[in-house]
UniProtKB/TrEMBL annotation:
This is ABC transporter ATP-binding protein. InterPro entries: AAA+_ATPase, ABC_transporter-like_ATP-bd, ABC_transporter-like_CS, ABC_transporter_ATP-binding, P-loop_NTPase. PROSITE patterns: ABC_TRANSPORTER_1, ABC_TRANSPORTER_2. Transmembrane segments: none annotated. Belongs to the ABC transporter superfamily. It comes from the Bacteria. Pfam families: ABC_tran. One of its GO terms (molecular function) is ATP binding.
């Protein structure tokens, strides 16, 4: 049941994804409002990427309805996709191209008029102005992530989707990326991200959904989930430091077993 979607930019209703006979996503529903950062949390194999790929239109779900900015992803895919920005994996970019060439290439693909002032401002913003002529393949993982986020937001989409955006980043780069994600929220746009970091979920997400075995098992604000489950015996037994954290709630709800 979707409660109070309000001014939702993204609505996902009763999403079901199968790979052959295996059901990876089962009746998943959630919404993301304007000015909201929404996190999908779940153990390995829970169905987060399958959900994200369905929203991105890269995967055709067996059933369910997805609307982005009011456009149905299967009926009006071009309109829906024009309103979203997807952070691509570093391996999606041509390593021989320079940062400048890659940013210009994607600006062209998205039909964005990128003046040299705007390009310089973007490069300054991600602290890569001096590396502008470096080949993408020569950048560190963190630098590549920053370029990738710039590209996903170059056409100023109202929904930005990030699959584990800060994995492998040092604390400084992670903080900087969080600030960039928060700047998207401040514009009144929406962010859907996946993360394995409970710290990240608590630091930047306004609401989260915990997914396990393809199903949403809880949705609330991080603090709301802690308050709701703090007396749950499984959550208390997961607690390590005498106080209940979001990670304790996550382990309490999804179990201690490492997924195959
Ligand atoms: N192309 C595919 N063919 C068959 N099974 C798949 C395929 N893609 C994903 N799966 C399976 O679907 C389930 C959900 O995978 P998914 O990648 O959505 O999980 P996830 O929550 O993103 O996991 P992780 O945290 O490990 O990235 C897993 O059991 C996975 O093995």
């Amino acid at each position: 049941m979707i409660d109070q979607p309000g001014s939702s930019i993204l609505q996902v209703k009763n999403l079901n994804v199968f790979y052959g006979t295996f059901q990876a996503v089962s009746n998943v529903s959630f919404y993301v409002k304007s000015g909201e950062i929404f996190g999908l949390l779940g153990p390995n194999g829970a169905g987060k990427t399958s959900t994200l790929s369905s929203v991105e239109g890269l995967l055709k779900p067996q059933s369910g309805e997805i609307t982005v900015a009011g456009f149905n992803i299967s009926k009006q895919p071009l309109h829906a996709r024009a309103n979203m920005g997807v952070q691509l994996q570093a391996t999606s970019f041509q390593p021989e191209l320079t940062i400048t060439e890659i940013i210009k290439l994607y600006a062209g693909i998205y039909g964005v008029n990128l003046t040299s002032e705007k390009l310089n401002a973007l490069l300054q913003d991600i602290k890569l102005e001096e590396a502008a002529s470096k080949k993408f393949g020569q950048l560190s993982g963190g630098q590549q992530q920053r370029v990738s986020l710039v590209i996903s937001t170059i056409h100023d989409p109202i929904l930005v989707m990030l699959d584990e955006p800060t994995t492998g980043l040092d604390p400084q780069s992670r903080r900087q990326l969080w600030e960039r994600i928060e700047a998207i929220r401040e514009k009144g746009h929406a962010v859907l991200l996946t993360t394995h970091s409970m710290e990240e979920a608590e630091a930047v997400c306004d609401r989260i959904a915990i997914i396990d075995h393809g199903k949403v098992i809880a949705t609330d604000t991080p603090q709301g989930l802690i308050d709701l489950y703090r007396n749950d015996p499984a959550v208390i037994s997961a607690s390590r430091k005498g106080k209940i954290t979001l990670e304790d709630v996550f382990i309490g709800l999804t179990g201690k077993t490492v997924r195959a």
